[in-house]
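Hi,

I'm pasting everything inline rather than attaching a file, because the server keeps stripping attachments. The sequence lines come first, and each chain or strand is labelled.
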Amino acid sequence: MIEDLLKDFGPVPALDGRMMRVLHGISLKADAGSVTTILGSNGAGKSTTLACAQGLLRPNGGTVRLLGEDPYGASPALRSRVGVMLQDGGLPPSLRPIPLLRHVASFYRRPADLDALIERLGINEFATTSIRRLSGGQKQRVALASALAGNPDVVFLDEPSAGLDPQSRQVVFELIGELREAGMCIVLTTHLMEDAQKLSDYVYIIDDGRNVAQGTVSELTAHAAHETPAQAVTFTARAAMMLPALPEHLTLAEASPGHYRLDGVRSPGDLAELTTWWTREGVLPHALTMQPRTLEDVFLEIADKGNNAN
Amino acid sequence: MPTSMQAAPAANAQGTLRRILLQGRYETLGMISNGEQLVVAVVLPLMALLGLVFTDLLKDVAANPIDAAAPGVLALCVVSTAFTGQGIATGFDRRYGVLRFLSTTPLGRAGLIYGKVMAVLVVLFLQVLVIGGTALLLGWRPAPAGIGWAIALLVLGAAAFTALGLLVAGTVRPEATLAITNLAWVLLAAVGGILFPSTRAPAYLQPIVDLLPSAALGDSLRAALITGTGSVSGILILLAWTIIAGFAATRWFKWN
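And the predicted assembly:
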């Protein structure tokens, strides 16, 4: 649980040696048996928030409680209940993966079944290679395994799906799902909307060190004022058609030549607006799809608002 | 749960010690399986020992060249392992985020540092066996009265140079750590009172050299092992460096 977290970096030479505030009061909470995602673009403050939650950085304000304790300078007893996967790995390059995992597991009171974990993440395939020579995706798998080696109650995963090929990604996602079922508290960061949407029970969107939106995936993708989630209709037709006048809640745009997108569709009547226009233009579109609002839409809307406010 | 509450501190202390030993073993294996580190830790000191025995560079220090050479080479081993080897390893571990990652495990920051100290002491012990053994074969006869002093000096020297190595590794880029610790190794060996008595340094450098931990270590080891004389001032200088560098490293060490 994090409340009103403030973090300054610096002194920053570019600001005449003043401190630069990177987190302006982040608050969030993660429960056992769920996946809590911190979503934000690069530089939004995701990793800094995690580092404060893990006790790697001392916050300049606010409170952080990890399993009820202050994680900064936490006792070994607390750390033995927490697993961490860092974004840049944090793995010693000269070691081979399995001796490293055994070493990490040896610090914990009741470590995970390492053989099963190694098998599951396909680490045997490259067991004789030193970490230095592993591909990005292989390193990610070793880093994930080392976060889980201690069989923790809480696990922090900083960009767990970065650099993974589709199969490994599938395995990692399934594993995260199972750990959640087993009651683990999983906190992850990502800038990939699709991953956040697939994995998360609860999402915090942060931008420029502030909370900007939060909720379950369905809460976030539903429009606040309406029961039915808005959908987007995309279709392909003749390029540069004259766009019609539409009711206010609908937005129609030609995203790229010949590719159109109508946002805010909630009723058959909204679709009728489209077909009326097509009839008038004498156009039969192809590649017509309807999709519910995705997290990406939510995220882009928020980013847009932020830009307009500036 | 009164029973578990009473048992907990003992179990925790035991767990902490166990983790430090595990980390110490891991760091030790890392040090002795690294080729470059072995060169600095064993091969170069052995070459220095042979070089000093078969030349007359130390003929005014003791009657028997090996008696004059061995203490300085043992001092060189301390700088190799505690400062140069350990500093470079820590610098690169910091770059790769290994320190950050391990400090989130139950080992923690303190456990990491104690593990490194343990590895330095174990490797130093092995160096003393190899270098001391070779010297004994070459006819070295250390003064029995000085052996206790020598052990204290080696341990304290390891503490001072480990703290200095951590200070460098924790504050500058690993490439700079590599350059600084290697350059310091050469300079301290040649003119810092390690291999040659500090009185050999140029007169204008004398006051500075006398206060260096290298001179305190080298000169005091020579006094202890050649004539059996204990050097309180050497011990005090090393202690001061340990405290100052330890404090500075605690204050300025950057984990990321």
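Chain A has ten helices and 13 strands.

If the labels don't parse on your end, tell me and I'll reformat.
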